[in-house]
Amino acid sequence: MVEKSLFSKKELDGHPGWIALGRLKRAGCSGVVADYDGTLFGPGCGTESVARLIYEAAKKMVPVIATARGATFRRQQLKSIIEATRTNRLLKPVYISLGNGAWIDKVANGYIETIYDNSLTIDDTKTIIAAYQSLGIQLKPEDDAFRQKDLQFPWGDLLSPEYLELSQQSMGVWAEPIKLTLLFGQTTPEVLRKHHQTLSQALPRYQVSWGGKPVIDVSRKIMIKGKEIDGKLATAIFISELEDLSLDNIATFGDTPDGNDRALLELPYGFTNQEGYFGRPYSLPVIGLQAQRIYEAIYLLMT
């Protein structure tokens, strides 16, 4: 949590991102929707920092974490957020959107309630795995190291044995009901974009998302009023309607404006910790580590 401004006045004068934050602050920011990895969570900002930020933000606005993660987020971060709501009795509920909008939990007063579930079936999962395997991706052992480590974790109630078994049987695949993560090893962004396009065409019933890393996530498509919509954007729309908020008074944050944060950051007040963006999204002033830029911006909006 940022306690004191890390920016100097010189850095802020005329900065488009800072001007936009000031405009939203004056209008009144009623909600924050933020990506997790690379945005709230990263070097210098661990799980305790995230929980504390969410606690502080919930005193003034509705905080939403929108991540591509599923079971690994629950294992790593969810408990600390639930505890914060139990011990501190937040004024606003906290929402957790997993699998790029495929699943949404509401956390309040130490309790968690699932309010949206668009899970994949086992048949869905097998269809996606077959499309991935048809690409003929060759992974090196080091490319699969993190997945192999996760396979050894005692997941218990966090992950169904059926999906865990499919992961064990399929090299480069992490399967869970919320979404599938497909590994592509050390490759170029251009090659990954090509694979993304190929899978999108092969899996027209599913949402195929790329978050900037050499992985692609696949979940069920989300429809609003008969129209397909990006999952993270759908999260913002769904919760704004649920909490009676205006999208014009919500701040959104992400680290992949050309990846799975793109649609979310196209809302009127979208911000990124990447450089070179001057409106929808706005780049934040460059300071310290990337996650610190997000914390500083949220700190401004809630003080």
From TrEMBL:
Cited Pfam families: Hydrolase_3
Gene3D superfamilies: 3.30.1240.10, HAD superfamily/HAD-like (3.40.50.1000)
Highest taxon of the lineage: Bacteria
Coiled-coil blocks: none
InterPro entries: HAD-like_sf, HAD_sf
Full protein name: Sucrose phosphatase-like domain-containing protein
